[in-house]
Specification:
45% helix; 5-stranded mixed beta sheet; DNA polymerase, domain 1; 2 domains; elongated; alpha+beta; Cytidine Deaminase, domain 2; 10 helices; 14% strand
């Protein structure tokens, strides 16, 4: 029975592609490769129910996947592998070394793609030359930006080694929202001062949460920003009104709204 069902799905994919499939049907088809001759429909439904969506399934960790009934090591590994491939494809579309990032919007969208499938807190450093061409994007550490004791030293060493003139710091809120915390803002101030000491301009510190992102340094008055962040959390003002008087730097006029 299951072999016949899989054969029908296989022929449909070959003939029509995958656009007409529901999310659970795509998972069902994928799981045939790790759970042959089994009813993968119920397992696919369990995954969607557990993680909320297809994107949620492919953002889940190996350990989280294993906790779903019907998912063994082979299936969990297969899902993580596909998630990793999708992430590489997304990054390859806009992450060529030497690419010019001439606007804040481009930087934020690049970073949003960078964090696809990442379910732990992670810090990245984008490094640019004087013309804002990407030299490298380095993974600095896993963990929050304010708990990494050696963070400034690690970042400065990387940037000096790559002869970077400009840098952008990024970290994510895997299970939260793209609103900088007071610790994020304090850490931004500390990092900017550290980079200033070695003659490297820190252009931005971006917070990523899913497909959403928020640039912390759209205004350089950190005390006003702390007040502004409280207003955002309380939904008193839209995000765009908080970041007034952006500093003079490439792409400062660009908004960072997700499109």
């Amino acid at each position: 029975m299951h072999d016949g069902h899989w054969e029908r799905i296989r022929r449909r994919i070959i003939a029509e592609g995958t656009d007409g499939f529901e999310e659970h049907q795509l998972l069902e088809a994928l799981l045939f490769y790790s759970i042959p001759r089994s009813d993968t429909n119920e397992t696919a439904h369990r995954l969607i129910e557990e993680f909320g969506s297809l994107a949620g399934v492919f953002s889940a960790s190996y350990e989280e996947l294993l906790r779903v009934f019907g998912i063994g090591e082979s299936s969990a590994l297969l899902i993580r592998l596909v998630a990793g491939i999708n992430r590489k494809i997304a990054l390859s579309e806009n992450s060529r070394e030497g690419q010019c990032f001439d606007s804040l919007s481009k930087i934020c969208k690049y970073l949003a793609n960078l964090y696809v499938g990442i379910n732990v807190e992670r810090v990245y450093l984008m490094m640019f030359d004087n013309s804002m061409r990407l030299i490298d994007c380095a993974r600095i550490c896993d963990g929050t930006v304010n708990t990494a004791v050696m963070l400034p030293r690690l970042m400065i060493e990387k940037a000096l080694l790559k002869h970077a003139s400009n840098v952008v710091v990024a970290h994510n809120h895997p299970n939260g929202v793209a609103v900088p915390s007071s610790d994020d803002i304090s850490t931004t101030e500390m990092l900017r001062a550290a980079f200033d000491l070695v003659g490297i301009q820190m252009l931005e510190h971006v917070v990523i949460a899913g497909k959403n992102y928020a640039p912390i340094m759209r205004g350089r008055n950190f005390e006003n920003m702390r007040v502004g962040m409280n207003a955002i959390v309380e939904n008193k003002y839209p995000m765009i009104n908080i970041y007034d008087n952006p500093p003079d730097r490439p792409g400062a006029d660009d908004s960072c709204e997700d499109t």
